């Protein structure tokens, strides 16, 4: 049975690390796992990613660029993998656009959802894992900060993620990211196993 898991959280909270660890653990359980990320999982996505990190872009344009990246990501990676019964683990997905552009940069959550809905409506993660931790600690972990990694934005983003989780507690879970890598991965594995999909 296919399974779709998204990792979310502020920059530097440990998503890439934990997505990798979970992928390895689920492979040990015999799952066929595809580990992927946004932005930049596809050929066009890599071009979009380069643009996003090297150019000053207004937040509304960002919404469309992230949505374009997501559209190619779904068409080329997520949809075929789920159709083949695989487990897809993505490092960031729609909630990042809702929270960074919609809330953090004030574009508005409805705007972001309206742009993304035609693309994502049939591809809703079974489980979204938010790694939560204080911004100052997470930013200390980040090397070569990109233009998204500003303290004030990250504070708004952190609150945005927690708020979204509280609105959808069934499918969006918060894990304390401010623990050792092994403690965090233990919490995540317990959460995934308790969902009954593995
Ligand atoms: P993200 O993908 O959320 O930006 P990463 O997984 O890339 O975060 O982690 C950012 C940095 O912090 C990396 O150098 C990583 O090795 C380190 N790191 C990840 N998790 C932890 C942790 N629990 N404790 C300490 N350092 C961590
Ligand atoms: P990345 O280097 O992948 O950072 P991280 O390791 O924190 O995931 O950079 C992705 C950046 O893009 C990150 O700052 C969050 C931002 N982002 C958005 O603003 N909106 C989105 O929809 C997505 C997917 C990412």
Explain this structure to me?
- It is a single chain.
- This protein is an alpha/beta fold and 198 residues long.
- Helices cover 57% and strands 14% of the residues.
- The chain is built from 8 helices and 5 strands; from the N terminus they run βαβααβααβααβα.
- The protein has a 5-stranded parallel sheet with strand order 2-3-1-4-5, sandwiched between helices.
- Helix 4 (94-104) crosses helix 7 (151-167).
- It is globular, with a radius of gyration of 16 Å.
- It starts with a strand and ends with a helix.
- The mean pLDDT is 96.
Q: What's the helix and strand layout?
A:
Elements: E1 3-8, H1 15-28, E2 33-37, H2 43-54, H3 59-83, E3 87-91, H4 94-104, H5 109-120, E4 127-132, H6 135-141, H7 151-167, E5 172-176, H8 181-194
The structure holds adenosine-5'-diphosphate and thymidine-5'-diphosphate (TYD).
Short description:
This protein has helices at about 15-30, 45-55, 60-85, 95-105, 110-120, 135-140, 150-165, 180-195; strands spanning about 5-10, 35, 85-90, 125-130, 170-175. The protein is of the alpha/beta class and about 200 residues long.
């Amino acid at each position: 049975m296919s399974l779709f898991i998204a990792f979310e959280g502020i920059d530097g909270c440990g998503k890439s690390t934990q997505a990798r660890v979970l992928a390895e653990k689920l492979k040990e359980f015999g799952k066929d796992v595809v580990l992927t990320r946004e932005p930049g999982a596809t050929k066009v996505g890599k071009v979009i990613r380069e643009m996003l990190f090297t150019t000053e872009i207004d937040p509304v344009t960002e919404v469309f660029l992230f949505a374009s990246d997501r559209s190619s990501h779904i068409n080329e990676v997520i949809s075929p993998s789920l159709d083949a019964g695989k487990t897809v683990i993505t490092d960031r997905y729609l909630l990042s656009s809702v929270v960074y552009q919609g809330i953090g940069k004030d574009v508005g959550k409805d705007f972001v959802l309206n742009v993304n809905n035609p693309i994502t409506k049939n591809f809703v993660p079974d489980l979204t894992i938010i790694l939560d931790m204080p911004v100052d600690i997470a930013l200390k972990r980040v090397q070569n900060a990109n233009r998204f990694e500003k303290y004030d934005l990250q504070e708004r983003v952190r609150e945005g993620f927690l708020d979204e989780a509280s609105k959808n507690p069934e499918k969006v879970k918060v894990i304390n990211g401010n623990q050792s890598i092994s403690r965090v991965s233990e919490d995540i594995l317990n959460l995934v196993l308790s969902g009954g999909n593995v």
